[in-house]
Design goal:
10 helices; 2 domains; Rossmann fold; alpha/beta; single chain; about 280 residues; 6 strands
């Protein structure tokens, strides 16, 4: 092969290599923006991201776990919120050694203080609670006005108490497992849930109607999640309500539940077209 032909071949290889690199780079850039769907998101065609994406970076979400659980039980929700740009305070508290009133003051006051520090101090403060955590929030807001209160999502909250507590609170060992806060969650007129008023802000409730515990479910009238009747999860003043096929103990780890919680924080309502 002549030098001239060799030179032409090298030139062609370099030209096609350059085009190939450009194509690969462009494909990777598009993939990162679209999740490899082949379609750019609408906000990428404009000069600014959507309002929700901006607001999330300003807002803080406080997570409150349930009775006899720890903050680790809310880790999956915490990770999903952080991916959306929220600052998350996954607040732990010693649920089995104090009454609701003490727990609410200590845990929520501390979490709010953390939200008000740093770059998120100007944003709203949202809440996602599981079970007892929802009662703590109602107790706190009955005594305190939170100026930057955003939206709240309650997962499986015993807003009208639980028949399980009515039937088992005097059984030996109940207080060891559930503490004074657990004893407060009955359905009677003198029990704490009946003493709390309407929710003073935007709130959505997600109830479960699937039970892993047939023994406890026998104590509960109607559909239930193994701990709380669906009919006792609602709260006066709620903005939306949805029932999903999940259990009390694992509701906070369910993918659909997490998606619905995020949807409510962003839009003030659940997406009722998605239920499984």
């Amino acid at each position: 092969m002549s030098r001239h032909n060799i030179s032409m071949t090298v030139g062609l290889v370099r030209s096609w290599s350059t085009r190939l690199y450009r194509l690969i780079f462009t494909s990777m850039a598009v993939g990162l923006l679209t999740g490899w769907t082949g379609q750019l998101p609408a906000w990428a065609m404009t000069s600014t991201p959507p309002h929700g994406a901006v607001q999330a970076k300003l807002d803080c979400v406080i997570l409150l776990h349930g009775l006899a659980r720890t903050r680790r039980s809310m880790n999956k929700i915490s990770e999903a919120l952080e991916k959306e740009g929220y600052r998350v305070i996954n607040q732990g508290y010693d649920s089995r050694h104090h009454a609701v009133q003490e727990l609410a003051e200590a845990a929520i006051s501390d979490a709010i203080g953390q939200c008000k520090s740093g770059s998120h101090s100007e944003g709203k403060i949202h809440f996602i609670t599981h079970s007892l955590g929802g009662i703590l929030l109602r107790q706190y807001l009955q005594r305190h006005r939170l100026e930057k209160l955003g939206r709240a999502v309650m997962l499986a909250p015993p807003n009208e108490g639980s028949e399980v507590v009515d039937r088992l609170k005097d059984v030996p060992g109940f207080d060891v497992l559930n503490g004074p806060a657990g004893r407060q969650l009955g359905t009677g007129a003198d029990d704490l849930p009946a003493q709390l008023g309407p929710f003073p802000g935007e709130v959505g409730v997600i109830a479960g109607d699937f039970s892993f515990n047939p023994i406890l479910s026998r104590l509960i009238p109607g559909p239930d999640d193994g701990k709380v009747a669906v009919g006792r999860t609602a709260v006066a003043g709620q903005d939306d309500f949805i029932v999903l096929p999940v259990s009390h103990s694992f509701i906070m780890r369910n993918r659909t539940v997490i998606e619905q919680a995020l949807h409510f924080l962003q839009h003030g309502r659940f997406d009722h077209s998605i239920k499984d």
